[in-house]
Structures
1.
Amino acid sequence: MSAPAPPLFSPAAKAVADRLGLKTGRANLDEFAATLEELARVNPDIVVVTSDSRGSGKLAPFGKALPKQIVEVGVAEQNLVGIAAGLAACGKKSFGVSPSCFLTARALEQIKNDVCYSNVPAVLVGISAGVSYGALGSTHHSLHDLAVLRAIHNISIIAPADNWETREAIRFAATASKPVFVRFGKAAMFHLHRPETKFEVGKAIQLREGNDVAFVATGETVIHALLAAGKLAEQGLNCRVLSMHTIKPLDTEAILRAGRECRAVVTVEEHSVHGGLGEACAAILLQAGVNVPFKIAGIPDEETVPGSQADIFRHYGLSMEGLSETAAGLLK
Amino acid sequence: MSGKTLSDRELALKAFHLRRKMLETIFAAGAGHTGGGLSCLDILNVLYNRILNVSPDNFSSPSRDRYVQSKGHAVEALYVVLADRGFFPESELETVCRYQSHFVGHPTRHVPGIEMNTGALGHGLSISVGMALAGKMDGAKYRVFTLLGDGELAEGSNWEAALAAAHYQLDTLTAIIDHNTLQITGCTREVMNNEPLDEKWRAFGWGVKIVNGHDYAALTAALSRPAEAGKPTCVIANTVKGRGVSFMENVARWHHGVPSEAELRQALAELDAAEARFREEKA
């Protein structure tokens, strides 16, 4: 008989979270659905397009409350994006919602041409991103979405770390005049930010000060980086933690400061090590002549190990334990 | 309803001018989709001069009709029709495919009068479905038209859109198929057969009309109103690829063929002669 899937946060990680005073929130997915419904109630031009994904997108309540503002296309991601583009071209603020693994693969040409190249203000929401689908396997993983969309002109890319960042990202997207892509998962997240924090697209948020190792993390890996920093503090190391919620446009200033002021840099993403945040940071640092011990933490280029999201994180060193070991190793 | 309503005779005379202009544009650009532009030119002529509530004056109005050219490669045909309607000066046609000109080899919104950036086949119908849905949501009356190639119908995304259009009973939506039966590699029937088209579209829940794509009266009747209430309309326009130039008609190599200077002269001479005969016969 197999053991139950391990939790995303080990008991040790939970203890560190406790020590840091972090409180649990809900899944970013739930925050997204609630925020979007709130916005759509006062803006009748907000229209959601779903590919048999209102359930997985937690948008069934939205669909019941605002039936005139949801379009179901069935399992047809290309049509979903094309329709979202057509709606946006005719004055609607469309939100195309689908698992990121399908949205940014199956419908990539529609994103590239109908949304980005045609420059219509559609919002694309990639749910259950990264390895959220865990043991369902690689067909349902999205380890490429940041990479492919970085290479397409005219789209902002946001990977919110916690509920507040998710809320802010959706609010931003709802009034943006240009294309936006937002991706997140479905595990409950910790609240990361103080109430007075300001959200600005393209500006990283510094969660922790320090000049030993800088963790430049994005999306739902930020919490694990923050916990790693908390753990490393026990060893007398002061680590900087940046929540790089916006992958495009990237906060190059924050990255350069981290590279110049810290003894080492670890980037963290629930994404392939190719083409995402890590390689973007490397390109920025190297082209600016900043030479710093550097490691990209992400999912390596191999057949992803089968397992839950928690198993996969642990296996590839993306959990608190793995990240703190990686960071310490750079300082040797 | 468009600002001007031309007679069949006026449309026909305009068509000679448009064909000449299109060939000259392609020659000057050194590139262009000649055959497929000539096959759909009459459809565009009718759309922009009889059917579409679209003009340079109302192009930013939310209540205008929409036209999306899904077969984006026939852009030269669209350029000359838009120039003729006054969306931009005809002199801009000399810049097609030139360095830093917005008049690239497929439609972009940088060109006045163009709604969406098309060219990758199989996108226009979904976009049009979205536009029609927006109109329905707003209780608006505008109609949405899109032109597809028959070779383009191999793209599966078209059929996703076809399902959705019927599902949502989008009777403000009309898809026109430029049924010239040829594509780059040869006859569509031999490359990837998609006949019978009319039965397929009916099976998908569309109202279907079949017309001669070079007959202005027939095109007008087919495009003026939906085929069936509560259904989107598919107008299968039987056309001749390369129509209007004897050595281009039904010849696959003219899909993307730039005429030589001699060929251009011959083509223009043919069109001049055809126009002269037309004026005489229909005087």
2.
Amino acid sequence: MTRVRISRTLSAADGHIVCNGCGHKLVVAGNPWKPYANIAEVPVIGMPGAGTGVQPTIVLRQFSCPSCGSLLDTETAMPGDPFLDDVLEVVNDRN
Amino acid sequence: MDPITFSIIRHRLFRVVEEAVMTLKHVSGSAITNEGHDLMVSLYEADGSLLLGGVGFLHHLTSAAEACKSIIRRFAGQINEGDLFLLNDPHTAALHTSDIYLVSPIHHEGELIAWSACFVHVYDIGAMNPGGFAPDAQDVFSEGFSSPGLKLIDRGVLRQDIWDTLLNMVRGPEMVALDLRSMIACNNVAKDRMLALVGKYGVRTVQQASKTLIEQSEARLRARLLELPDGSWQSRQYFDVKGEVYRTLLTMTKRGDSLVFDFTGSSEQSKYAVNCTKWASLGGLFAPLFPLLCYDITWNEGVIRPITMIAPKGSIVNCDKPFPVSVATVGAIQSVNNAACTTIGKMLACSEKYADQSSAVWHANHFAIFMFGQNQRGGESIGILTETFAGAGGARNFGDGVDIGGEIPNPISRMANVETMEALFPIRYLFRRRLRDSGGGGEFRGGTGGEMAIVPHDAPSGGIHYALSGKGTAFPQSEGLAGGNPGAVNDYVWVHAYNNPEAKPNFAQNLEAIPGDKQSVSWGVFPLMNKDALYVRWNGGGGMGDPLERDPAKVKQDLVDQAISVEAATQIYGVVIDGIAVDVRSTKKLRESMRKLRMTEGVAV
């Protein structure tokens, strides 16, 4: 399979979604990749520059490559909200 | 049509809009128009379709098209040469009542050939709070004068009864009259220049060029979409009012040469005035689409055709009447802007060719602070703190966001000088500057927002009041991309002066140095009286890429420039500064340990 760019940090290659930093295969193409990344949840209220009114439960989800530690994506989320799901159809089709 | 004539007419259309904008600004007397550039001028075809989108707040390009179409339907058979119509009903076309559209039909030898339309945020619209943003409103009926369309000028003659009725319903009628006159003058100039163009080249030639221009834009956007991969991308925005949390959820799907923006899953409509109507949501998604996807394509009906919006009825992005909407432009509309910016940015990032066009979210939160009360000259003043238009750039694929760099939905937004604001209101600025740690961290940092503090000064009534519609304090909305952090949030702090004559803010240079008890505020009407102070900070742009990949030399420069703190240099960027230099060895070690932590914490499935 030709390498297909998914984002600045991810590609699809050899039937998998892979980390651009080290080539680590996160998951078989066609599946959501985020559950297969390492996920840290950083409370926004504790980040440098946080304001006085920040909601205590809002977190910054950080999705990292389990192999090289590259940060692959981030999203803000309230507890229980699902991962944002970005789908590239060519990656799914070729699976 | 020969390409040279086409090109000349195309350029002349741009100049028509440009000259009309200049006229609007020359006649208008309000800071929100002249300094903040909260305005828009565009040209429309005879059927109301967008012919040439101008500058200003881009949400209005599609809404004003609907305004023209609505006027065409409502006044069928009664649209005459020299007429001018007013429309500001959010359920008909407008964004909120204080953004008034004035639209002029352009006739040539008795034939309707085009429309000119413009808006400004008028000085007041008679809502329950001065200035148009009405945080206290419970429904749209409390948000001031609202018209689905009326004829203000009939065959060149001002309808004095309508004019007097409108001005009888607003505060500061002389200023509202000036706003309206500025828009009338703007439309007159647009009309004159269009007729001059038609006079020189002939009406059929200009119409043919317009048709070609629209076809060209549609073809070019569809071709661009075909170059981009098919897929769907999501974004989620949170915002709150008085502890009630709202979500705007967007799934943008691109297939072939079309795009669908689906807001299914967004929160139900709110009892607070942050809702928006469907026309506002449509404008909201187009505001970032025009500059991000169509930076080299003329903004007109051709750009609109490949786009579809799904906005569930009764939701915060398509509310029912009479739910209030006066804060929409800084509420749900802005969340739509931000979400669309993110999904478009994600789509562009999939393409090697277009990756450099992707951008993290810019200035995600306006702060609508409308001050009102007796000014230092004994008269009354109403107006916005224009720093809300100062903005902050989102980081790009190749570079940092611009500090206090404006916003995507309005390419010409800016803030007034401190001296202008001090001349308009009985206030004095203690400080105004970039806000440290406000730009989202990333390999490329989001642009910083800013911070400022004001105190009453030379105020006959002891101070002034302000209506604050302050969403954006609880949740960061300037999303980052590809590992970038979001920009920091807004904040509004009322400093209650100590009851001690010696405890004056004088020349305090930061919030901590202002003497008094500090209270966070975000929604409602508040006083700024006596020795109290108001501190405001506004959000930065989102970051792009992994912060641990940022060049340590840039981190050091950010420290020198006070764009970031030592704490951020260490915690976010993993850079250790020894005195005034980067400690290369310690930085390498720290970054390695931070990456290792990522590899071991939060273990994957």
